[in-house]
Amino acid sequence: MTDLTSPVAPPTAPTTADKSQFDSSSARKQWQVIARRFLRHRAAVIGVVIFVVLVLFAFLGSAFWQYSYTDLGFTRYENPTANHPFGTDRLGADMVAQIIRGTQFSLQIALVVAFLSTLIGVVLGALAGYKGGWVDTAISRFIDLLLVIPGFIIAAVLVRNSFVATATGGGSSNWLVVALYLGLIGWLSIARVIRGMVLSLREKEFVEAARALGASTSRIIFRHILPNTVDVIIVNATLAVAQAVLLEAALSFIGLGVHSPDTSLGLMISLNKNELNLHPWLFLIPFVFIVLISLSVNFIGDGLRDAFDPRQKRVKA
To answer: What pTM was estimated for this model as a whole?
Structure first.
């Protein structure tokens, strides 16, 4: 039998390991877990480094480079040298300065397209998923109709009509017009994804509670439902940047994208496509920059997808 008269030993103080296991204040926040998963994705980290370098090159490079894109007094078609690392073009302009300017315009277009297409897609997708009925039917059928026609063709027709309508200086356009048109056709995929998620979330208890308390439709969508889809929104917005760069380059290559006096990497490829045999650097250098932008952004998107949803590759926090 146990001796009830013997003194009971006092409980031992919890160790540091026990405190970290049971103390909720030491638990990592969700953003810390996501950041930890993202940093374990090597390709995504490399993509971030490359993309940051490209952004700094595009928006700060002209302040440190010795030549401007307006300087045209150099020898035409000069091979890459220490003085002109990327050579010169047919007008005698320094190609480093031209690449800086083209990268800047391409990134501006991509960011505007990503923002506009994400905004339109999220709003229409959330509205269709939450309201249902004829609203869902109308938006879904409109999306299906646009998906039948390739987005490249729609963009080409819109931009071409803009050139004809605004025939100024031979029908030229600027980068913002191209970005707006690309943004107006780039929201279809994200709208369908958000619609599917909202269809599931609108039946959750927290949405029912908000509806019972008299919350408006806009408040339920933007304050209760969409915050639960932020991971999908971020990933799709990131991938939209890469898609916009490639689509703009394709349009500019066939002469329906950015026109002078504005420029882009796609336009530079188009202007120098006939120089591939004699002066290949004029074609290959802007092509390499387009590939770097697209790959880096795609790597970032893959890392964000794995960070927000570790089931993709069983990434542990």
So the answer is: 0.79
